[in-house]
Amino acid sequence: MSQQRHGNTPGNAGAVPAFPDLPEATIARLPEYLRALHNLAETGSETVSSEGLAAAAGVNSAKLRKDLSHLGSYGTRGVGYDVALLIDQIEYILGLDQRRAVALVGVGNLGHALAGYDGFASRGFRIVGLFDADAERVGKTINGLPVRHVDELGRAVVEDGITIGVIATPAGAAQGVADELVAAGVTSILNFAPCVLSVPAGVDVRKVDLAIELQILSFHEHRKASLTALPGGRVGENGNQEAVGS
Amino acid sequence: MSQQRHGNTPGNAGAVPAFPDLPEATIARLPEYLRALHNLAETGSETVSSEGLAAAAGVNSAKLRKDLSHLGSYGTRGVGYDVALLIDQIEYILGLDQRRAVALVGVGNLGHALAGYDGFASRGFRIVGLFDADAERVGKTINGLPVRHVDELGRAVVEDGITIGVIATPAGAAQGVADELVAAGVTSILNFAPCVLSVPAGVDVRKVDLAIELQILSFHEHRKASLTALPGGRVGENGNQEAVGS
DNA sequence: CGCGATTTGTGCACGCCTTCACAAGCGCCT
DNA sequence: AGGCGCTTGTGAAGGCGTGCACAAATCGCG
């Protein structure tokens, strides 16, 4: 899975304001639904059934209906969901209507690619600051944005209203950067460095480790190989190779 | 969470061969333990307690013990785990002792970064083939490896013994590449393209969508903002802002 | 040799998530 | 107006994962 646990979710027993507290698993799927909905909107669809949207998002239709039911009743029985309305709803819930400002720290190999990744801008995020500790890189511009020294990070966070920090530094520098981000008031961090970050409660950290994903695949390759190349014996004893699916 | 479901896991009732079928959640954490163990080995530690390793990997110690118990008994009560032994065990389980050959398709913005990412090689993976459909890019070399046309993908998979394919193309091209990988015999795919891949049962697909992670963080930002900036009233009615933690 | 300190391995209970199955609701056609 | 087909929304059941708490096992020391 490759995600770090979320630091908080206060123990509010009954005083939830006007915000639905969705299951974490549902939240993680909303972006996928959103992408599928945008695709549908481009093809001119005005409504979509749970079955159709579920197929486009690669999930079970019952799961999709339960997920959407947590947001409220935005479907019409016998018809389906209004595509445009649902897009607005999900984007509101995800807070994407605010075009959040993002700081990217570390413009090495990976950071450089992230700085140029257009998937961010197209989904409501603006990378407004690039930072690095290497004097060699400071001053260069990527996609029209100058690379500043990491010492300026704190001031930039405040001045530019940055709410999310992305760490793409080597593992050794990540904790220090995280500390600076937190000190400057950032409460959401996306960490690409292969290390565990320690942050105070109330700060959310999500981790993406590209090598971990490969290792998980490697495990399944190993497992599959050991299943097919059985020494002698009970292969296919109970029939069906490919079950389930989805 | 950003993972696609695994296509298979046959319905083998009782005939599992000589391979432990670990819980999926455990598998996903093994790479993290492995990284922590390598760090410990470099500092000269010969043994480590579950508490110590859990802290280094950012998880609960009970969870760690349960995870490791699934692999067998490799710890000594009163002492801890033998670092070197545990590294060997986990690497064997993950199939990392085979230095798997990986094909990378799509050397655009992100693909270029992946091709140069040294985190792969250091964890037992060799990128042995780069492919792209753009004639502009074919022929160039990245890290000493030439970019070949995607038409050669099928032959290269067979000749070079490639077992894992990484897709870093635009969304529109991803399904076609996946089909070619599967046709050539690849059964594990890591997909960076923002789309759902359809593959036959028995093929594992894992998905990484960088923008999705940001959107999940955005949700939590939105939630936190709506909690602190309550219109009038019941803030702090029930005390503790920061609970749990982990 | 025995005892206490330490740490692993695990039984158990709890909570979250998924999935099925179906009632309730909506629109369309006659 | 009435009925029929289609689709949503949800109650309930089952499975999986987590974390506590403790018994079992090992080491070191007197």
Topology:
2 copies of one chain form a homodimer.
Chain A: H1 24-42, E1 47-48, H2 50-57, H3 61-71, E2 75-76, E3 80-82, H4 83-94, E4 100-105, H5 109-116, H6 118-121, E5 125-132, E6 141-142, E7 145-149, H7 153-160, E8 162-167, H8 171-184, E9 188-191, E10 204-207, H9 210-228
Parallel strand pairs in A: 4-5, 4-8, 5-7, 8-9, 9-10
Antiparallel strand pairs in A: 1-3, 2-3, 6-7
Helix pairs in contact in A: 1-2, 1-4, 2-3, 7-8
The first copy, chain A, binds a DNA duplex (30 and 30 nucleotides) through residues 23-26, 49-51, 60, 62-63, 65-66, 68-69, 73, 75-81.
Written description of the protein model:
- 2 copies of one chain form a homodimer.
- Chain A is α/β, with parallel strands linked by helices and 246 residues long.
- Helices cover 42% and strands 17% of the residues of chain A.
- Chain A contains 9 helices and 10 strands.
- Chain A has helices at 24-42, 50-57, 61-71, 83-94, 109-116, 118-121, 153-160, 171-184, 210-228; strands spanning 47-48, 75-76, 80-82, 100-105, 125-132, 141-142, 145-149, 162-167, 188-191, 204-207.
- A 7-stranded mixed sheet of chain A has the order 6-7-5-4-8-9-10.
- In chain A, strand 6 (141-142) and strand 7 form a beta hairpin.
- The longest helix of chain A has 19 residues, at 24-42.
- The first copy, chain A, is globular, with a radius of gyration of 22 Å.
- The two termini of chain A are 18 Å apart.
- Mean pLDDT of chain A is 88; it is low at 1-17 and 232-246.
- Chains A and B meet through helix 1, helix 5, strand 8, strand 9 and helix 9 of A and helix 1, helix 5, helix 6, strand 8 and strand 9 of B.
- The first copy, chain A, binds a DNA duplex (30 and 30 nucleotides) through helix 1, helix 3 and strand 2.
